[in-house]
Each structure stands twice: as C-alpha cells, then as structure tokens.
Batch of 2 targets.
Target 1
Amino acid sequence: TEADRTPRIEAALDELGDDVVILGHNYQRREIVDHADFIGDSYALSKHAAEADAEYVVFGGVTFMAESADIITDDDQTVVLPCMEASCPMAGMAEALQVDAAWEQITAADPDSEIIPITYMNSYADLKAFCAEQGGLVCTSSNAHKAFEWALERGDKILFLPDKHLGENTAHRLGMAESIAEWNPWDPEAKDADELEESEIVLWDGYCQVHERFTAEHIAEVRTEYPDANVVVHPECRREVVEAADVVGSTATITEVVEEADPGETWAIGTEIHLAKHLDRWHDDVNVFPLCGDACMDCDAMRQIDPNYLTWVLEELAAGREHNVIEVAPEEKELAGVALDRMLEL
Ligand code: 13P
Ligand code: SF4
C-alpha cells in the first residue's frame, strides 16, 4: 500500500541524497508525481534532465523520454526507467528502417526540393539521429510551430513524423493547411508522386491512440451541459477536436490555463486522464473535469510506471545496484543529441 511504500521511498531517498533526481511526466499517476522533484511536459522534462547534475535520473515517463534524458545528460549520469514496459505506441509507429525506405521514395518523387525531416519527441533515438543526419531536428508539442519555421527557412518541404494530428494542427497554425500530403507507411504505393511533389508538408500516418479517441461530440456534450465551460485540448487530438476547443496546447499549457483560471471557472481537459485528475486535486477553486468522463483516456504506457517499481529501483540504487538503465547506443547518441540540441536552441 501507499502507507507501506512511502517510508521505504523516503528512506531510499535519504540514503541517496543529491545523487538522485526524480522526474515525472504530467501523465504519471499520483503516487509517482507525489515523489517527483520536477513535474512537467516532455519539453520541460528534457530541459530539466539537461540541467540536472544528479548521478541518477529516475524517469517517471515512457522509454522515448528516458532515452532523450540519456542523450542530453552527461556521460557520468545514469537514467533509470522504473519499468521497461513503458513504451509509447505512437513512438513505435515510425521505425527507422521503415523511415529509410519512405525517405527514398519521398525524395525521389521530388528531387528538386530540399526536404527537412522533423520528428516529434515521441520517437526513438535512431529516428532522431536520422533527422539530424538529414539536416532536421526534434520538436515537442510546445514548439512544433517553431520547428516547422526553422525547417522552412532551410528547405522547401517538411517530412513530419510520427504524429499526423500534431503535424496537421501545426500546419493549420502556420496557414499551410492546403499543402499537406499524408504518407501511409503501411501502404506506400497508395501515394501518387504528383501529390507528394506539390505538397510542402508530408505527414507520416501515426497517431496517439489516447488522444485520437476524443471527438467533437465530446466537446458539444460538455458545452450543452456546462454552457460556461472552457475546453482545452492537446494538439495530438484530431483537427475537428482542436477546432471545437477554446485552447490547444501541450500538457504544460493545459496546466497553465488551469493555474491561471479565476476562481469558479470551469475547464474540461482534453488529454490523458491523470493530468485532469492532478489539476482537479491541485486547484480546489476551479471546476476541472476530463473532457470525456473517467472511462477511456488512460495511457497504458504511462501507467506501467507502478509505484512498487519506483520503490524497487530506488531501494536498489540506495543499495548500490542499478536496474532498468536506459542507455542509447553511442553511434545514435551523438546524432540524436544534435537533433535535440537544435530543438533546445529554437
Ligand atoms: P507533452 O509534450 O505535451 O508533455 O505530451 C507528451 C505526450 O506524450 C502527449 O501524449
Ligand atoms: Fe504515447 Fe499517447 Fe501515451 Fe503520450 S498519451 S505517451 S503519445 S500513447
């Protein structure tokens, strides 16, 4: 139980002192964020990992985030993921081998254009390395528009992977909705070369299965039931959902709008359920609830970080034993670091 675990976690943290820092993504369950030294969105967590000087960075999040922390931190720092099963399905939708093959076809369809690949943070290190090698970079949901602008200053066309919704929403924000082509990696023959050549933004057909389940009907229902409600959604939601919302932004933006709300305001939260629950718990004077009830918007990957695993890795570190170390291969680490540095400099 939590009552058994908390003293064990505290004892391990006392033993480890400044040697450990715990980072928690906004979607982590309460029993993890309550022990985190820093809670944030994936951009803030990557900045925090870069600034941390603790020997151990224990990451409450998913594998791609822990990989990024390993890339960004110094070589003498060790990143630990309490459970190795915490893998974001969207990150698995763009495998580097598949992307290599697509890159050949897309560049062949438009040999006169300079194509810049951008990968969302939600991807593995080999894809980040590929993007750096081809002159591109990484972005998160809070700086995708800046990454697009960066790329269009250097080239004529963007290949954005893996999240088609974030890509489409960003293209709309930049007034480029007319120039989109979608690339289906499971049926590449379906794409005609003329359409690829004419488009300025090619979107890989990946998506988040948590955010894709929000619909415009969910928003319409909330507006009927709570006419004063404000709706904030994550840009991984479908276009129709973003269009129907009042505010769109990363989990940091979602947190900020509730922090800055006046007492008595109502906010429906269109993202993973745990963030809605934290905001409700942290802000008694604001009426906060999940956009689609409690039932469906739970990220399986994030939920793998069970507090029992956190207790285990911390006690083991305190006893001098390392488990679940996330270590990116050196050949990928350097290039992926270039792609991440380009993002951090945006
Ligand atoms: P943020 O970058 O907004 O924290 O989102 C990460 C994520 O996984 C969203 O599903
Ligand atoms: Fe991946 Fe979606 Fe979970 Fe975020 S919410 S970690 S994108 S599956």
Target 2
Amino acid sequence: MAKFKGALIGCGFFAVNQMHGWRDLPDVEIVAICDRDPERLDIVGDQFGVARRYRSAEEMFADGGFDFVDVATTVGSHRALVELAAHHKVPVICQKPFAPTLADAKAMVTAAEAAGIPLMIHENFRWQTPILAVKAVLESGAIGTPFWGRVSFRSGFDVFSGQPYLAKGKRFIIEDLGIHSLDIARFLFGDAGRMTARTKRINPEIAGEDVATMLLDHDNGITSIVDVSYATKLPEEPFPETFVEIDASQGTLRLGKDYALTVHGPKGTTRSVVAPNLLPWASRPWHNIQESVALIQKHWIERLAAGAEPDTSGRDNLKTFALVEAAYLSAERGETIALEELL
Ligand code: NAD
Ligand code: 89V
C-alpha cells in the first residue's frame, strides 16, 4: 500500500512525541517539517531524518507533496495554519487548544468544511488506555446507567520547565489541561448543556488560574464534576494520571492511582490495573500521554483512508472548546452558563 505522506509544523517540546508516533506507523512517512526556529528545525530534522525543512509554512505548502499536515505549534498560530491548509486543500490535524477564541475555532471549522478537507483536533487524552478501559466498562453495562461522575486531575508537577509559555498566559489550567478533562467528561458522559465553574490562582509566579472546579449538567441527566489543579502537593505525585469516579444504577467504578480500576456491580467486585503501555521511545511519567498520541494518530490514518470523520473532528471539538469558554465565563460572572448561548 502507498504510504500517506505527512508534513509537520512546529518542532517544539511536544512535537517530538508526534514524530515518534508517525515513525511507528508503517503506512506513514513525514516528508517535510517546518519551524520558525532553525535550531528546533535541525534538532527534529536530524533526529528523524527529514531532509525537507522549512522556516515558512507558506513555502512548505507551495512546494506541496504531502497528503496531510500535523500542526503542533502553540495556540496563537492555529487558525492561520489551519486556514492555510484549507486554502491548499490539505487534510489537517491541529493540536489542542483548538484556538484562542471560540469564534476562531468556528471559523476554522467553516474553512475546513468549505475546502472539503477533514480537520481533527489532536485531543488525545480520551485515547489513553485507562480512559478507554473506563469507557469499555460503561459500554458493557456492568454498572448500569450512570447518574454521577467525576473526572479529576490534581497534581503539583512542574509543567513550566518543559512548557514555559504555560506560566505566562492569562488563561492556564482550564485552557491547557482542563480542556482534556472536559473532553474526557464528554467522551464518558455525553454532551453537556450547562456549566458552573470556580477558579483560583495559588502559584504567585504564574499569570493564569491553576485550580478549577467545574460542575457539568449533561444532556442525558448525568451530573459530573471536573476538577483540575496544579497546586496540589500530594505525598505521591500522580502526574499525569486522570482519576475517574462513576456512580451508576447498578454499581460503581473508580479509576485511581497507578491505574487501579475497581468495578463494583451486581456480579461482584473486580480489581484490575489498566496501565498504559510503555512504548520504546516513551519515558515515565509521560508514557500514558505518549501512548495516546500514537493511538490518535493511528485513528487519523484509519479515518483518512476510509474518508470518514475522525472522532475528535473540529466540529466535535467545538463542543469541548465551548465548555472551556463557558467555564471561564462562569467563573468570571459567578453564574451558570448555558452552552447553547455559545454554540
Ligand atoms: P513549543 O513552544 O515547545 O513548540 C512550538 C513550536 O512551534 C516552536 O518550536 C515554535 O518555534 C514553532 N512555531 C510557532 N508558530 C509557528 C509558525 N507559525 N510556523 C512555524 N513554526 C511555528 O510548544 P509545545 O509545548 O510543543 O506545544 C505545542 C502545542 O502542543 C500546544 O498547542 C500545546 O497545548 C500542545 N500540547 C499538547 C499536548 C497533548 O497531550 N495533546 C501536550 C503538550 C502540549
Ligand atoms: O497535555 C497537555 O496539554 C500538557 C500538560 C499535560 C503538561 O498539561 O500541556
């Protein structure tokens, strides 16, 4: 089978994981890379043996020769780069967060649809092995119909050393990390129509909020709590594990530390460990995230080959991004926000 040829824009901190993931897929070859920073371009180009290197995305698109583009830059450039891909009719993956504003994200979806190209947001947390295991339990019916859930990420890990820009933005934890947790809540419990949120900044060295507590009213009647913190100093650091609690009509589910999954239902209690695989290029504690990168990339290629929409398409991810916007609005106003006002 002919290989899918890809190009990648943004050769920074996280893109290295994406390059490893692409290299592991037998039917994919990254034929061109782009970064404004020549040093990053050479580091990634040399590590992965990519000869075609560009400092300008416009020049890379003008030369062409690839079937899709993977945008791994930070949020400020996402809209321009997705619109550039749409202009050249090249299928595009865009890293989270989708865009600086919901209006930008909507414009990006419109541009991709008008060009007739698929747009996938690289929202990888729902592809983590432990989260997929939770989803499988729900779908099995083992605990019945959920009525309450919690998606929790509480850590004191220093994310700023690897990603210094995270300390500078007016928005921090909801936009960067809570966005993943909100997407997991949608994945497990369905779309949500109302959001109530409270935020705090505990770390005085950063500009944005580092704690958020969000209450979601899901359309199917489930109530969920999504709580995130980078100000939580625990005896054992759980980064980057997401904990999940679900109460349902016939039982309960708990996903806790070290990927321990407890499922209690009419047939009894089962305890298992749903740890992610440690890929050869991965490193602890990031391996959970790194494996989910490989899995979402595989999903993209499968859907591209089938001409089908990816699960975290731009249109789907508008609903996750709207929850982010709603959380900031709710915290600012001290009110509950109806999502229909935003979407
Ligand atoms: P980074 O700053 O380390 O890397 C971004 C790179 O993009 C830089 O090298 C920069 O020079 C380059 N760049 C920026 N604008 C450009 C443009 N217009 N043209 C060419 N190059 C450009 O950032 P990072 O930490 O790697 O984060 C990148 C993105 O990945 C962010 O959106 C971040 O939120 C996301 N991220 C996702 C995950 C995940 O699990 N999905 C994890 C970490 C980061
Ligand atoms: O996944 C992310 O988006 C990362 C991190 C886990 C550090 O928050 O920025």
